[in-house]
Amino acid sequence: MNIDEFLKKAEADEKLANEFKAAASADRLNEFFKSHSIDTTKEDFLKYVQEYARNNTELSDEELGAVAGGNNNVFMLFTAKLFCANH
């Protein structure tokens, strides 16, 4: 499963989304991705987040700068916004 497929699945599956959030908080994303057969790494996912943030006007300049700097709190903010985007 690629990143886009995972995000769509996580958006519809609260349990999976919570597992992802817990893994991100514990800095265990690589293990999470591997255990769920998601074809990415933490580093590649962060690059995906950065690219998404560059193209998404919902993030402030400060949030965008923090994502580019790898700030984990903003990473969590990004994922929360992403999962709640359609709600």
**CA-based gyration radius:** 12 Å
Structural class: mainly alpha
The proportion of residues forming helix, as a percent range, comes to: over 70%
Q: Give the beta-strand count.
A: 0
The multimeric state of the shown protein is: single chain
Arithmetic mean of pLDDT: 75
**Order of helical and strand elements:** HHHHHH
Describe the sheet with the most strands: none
Give the low-pLDDT segments. Answer: none
Description:
- This protein has helices spanning 3-12, 14-25, 29-35, 42-54, 61-68, 72-84.
- The protein is globular, with a radius of gyration of 12 Å.
- It has one domain (3-84).
- The protein contains 6 helices and no strands.
- By secondary structure, it is mainly α.
- Helix 2 (14-25) runs antiparallel to helix 6.
- The chain starts with a helix and ends with a helix.
Summarize the structure.
Helix content is 72%, strand content 0%. By secondary structure, it is mostly helical.
Ordered list of secondary-structure elements with their pairings:
Layout: H1 3-12, H2 14-25, H3 29-35, H4 42-54, H5 61-68, H6 72-84
Helix pairs in contact: 1-2, 2-6, 5-6
What keywords describe this structure?
mainly alpha, 87 residues, single chain
